[in-house]
Each structure stands twice: as structure tokens, then as C-alpha cells.
Amino acid sequence: MKKIIFLFAILHSCSVVFSQSTDTIKKSVSGAVTITDNGISLVPAFTLDKPAAIFDLAVRKNKFSFEPEWAFDFNSKPWYFVFWFRYKLVESSRFNMGVGFHPGFLFSATNTLVNGINNQYLTTSRFFVEELTPSYAISEKVSIGVYYQHSQGFNNILRQSHFVGLNSNFSGISLGDKFYMKAIPEIYYLKNDEKDGFYATSTFTFAKKDFPFSISSVINKKLSSTIPSKDFLWNFSLTYSL
Questions:
Q1: Of 38, 125, 152, 229, which has the fewest beta carbons less than 10 angstroms from its beta carbon?
Q2: Domains of the chain as residue ranges with CATH
Q3: What is the mean pLDDT of residues 169-192?
Q4: β-pairing, 195-208 with 52-61?
């Protein structure tokens, strides 16, 4: 928890520093701290199966952005680190398309028996991931899109992964004068080496206007799959946005 508080203070300090700079810098820096009762992976078919804290920072300039993300369990052990580099290929009132890549690191605990003593240490799996994100705005609050992600593993069992999702985004749904919600349902196909499957997932976010805290939930259901994963996943999260 000390690490969580320390990183939270860093993000808050960044927001204060940049808010005292020019308008351009203020608009290009943001961050968030999320506490969840069940850490669900960036690919929502997989889970940490325990509470987690996730720290996001996004630095944007023109069409480029750098968006690192750090995730830990509540024992301060790292879960994953990713460092997104993204670029907007197309930006218009209707059609948008971006590309991105990141080096990623997934941490897991491994038990070994040495001289009759059970020892636990962290192992790191390394990935290189690329993404393509075209989307089309039907209206100011509704858009549809395709999300494609390819992952190359290096020092782990999983070597190649493909993720293709069809999604829709319903934003700014009014819940009265002060509250609103956002929903992002998606159906996706996942292929991990020789195994594959179909899943349905959705993210719901509830927030108050001009208020930094929001609550959200991710739900994931396996439709048909040969990939070892749970049939149903869900979580509850609290986010503080900077």
C-alpha cells in the first residue's frame, strides 16, 4: 500500500505541475488511479483473481501519445507494466483510426523447492504488442469500431496471440442533471497459438459531472473457446482521474 500511495502522489504532483504551465500542456497530460476488487487483464478473458491497483499516465502532443500503465496487487507485487506509443492516423468528425505498439511485461510468482525449502520468486514474461483501432461516430454519443491486437511473446510459453473485437461506444448517457454513464459492449475473437475462442465483454462506467471519482465494472463471458479461461468474470472498480 505504501507503493500505491507513493505512485498516487507522483500522479497528483504531475497534474499540479502541468496545470501551472501553458494551455497546450494542460490538455496533453492526464492520469488515473484505479482500485479494483478483481484485476481483469487488458485481454478480458484473463484475470489476476485478486484485488489490484492500476496507474495510468497519458502524455499527448498533436497526434502522438505515450501512455504507460503499471498494475500491482495489494501486496505491492507487480502484475504487469505496459508502455503504449500511439499515433492517430486519421482524425475527423466521423472517422478515426489509430495505430500503436507497446513493450509489455507480465509478472507471475513461481515456487521452487531448494534443499527442502519452498521459495517463491517473480518471473517476467516479455511481449511486443501492436494495435489498430478504426472507429466511426454514428452520433455525438454513439460510435462503432474494430479493435485488432497482435502480441508476440519472447521468453514465455505463449508465442503468438491475435485479438479481433467488434465494439460500440455509448458515452455521456444522462442519468439526471449531474450523473451520466458510459457503456462499451464488445464481441471478440481470441487466438493464442493453436487455441482460440469467442467471448463477449462489456465495460460500464458511472460518473458525476466535474467530479474526479467514478465507478466501473467489467463483465466477460466465454461463448465458445478451447483457451483455458473462466466462463464468467466480473469486477468492480473505483477510479480517480487527474
A1: 152
A2: 2-241 (2.40.230.20)
A3: 95
A4: unpaired
Q: In this structure, how many other beta carbons lie within 10 angstroms of the beta carbon of residue 242?
A: 20
CA dihedral 169, 87, 103, 224 (to 10 degrees): 30
Evaluate if residue 7 carries a pLDDT over 80: no
Alpha-carbon distance of 91 to 134, in angstroms, equals 10
Choose among 157, 218, 229, 166: nearest CA to 196.
Answer: 229
Q: Report pLDDT digits (tens) over 184-218.
A: 999 999 999 999 999 999 999 999 999 999 999 99
Side chain identity at residue 63, one-letter code? K
* Strand spans (E) along the chain: 29-36, 52-61, 64-73, 78-91, 95-114, 117-137, 142-153, 160-174, 179-192, 195-208, 213-225, 232-234, 237-241
Provide the whole-model pTM. 0.84
- How does strand 237-241 pair with strand 232-234? unpaired
At 28, the pLDDT band (50, 70, 90 cuts) reads: confident
Terminus-to-terminus CA distance in the chain, angstroms?
A: 20
pLDDT given at position 27: 64
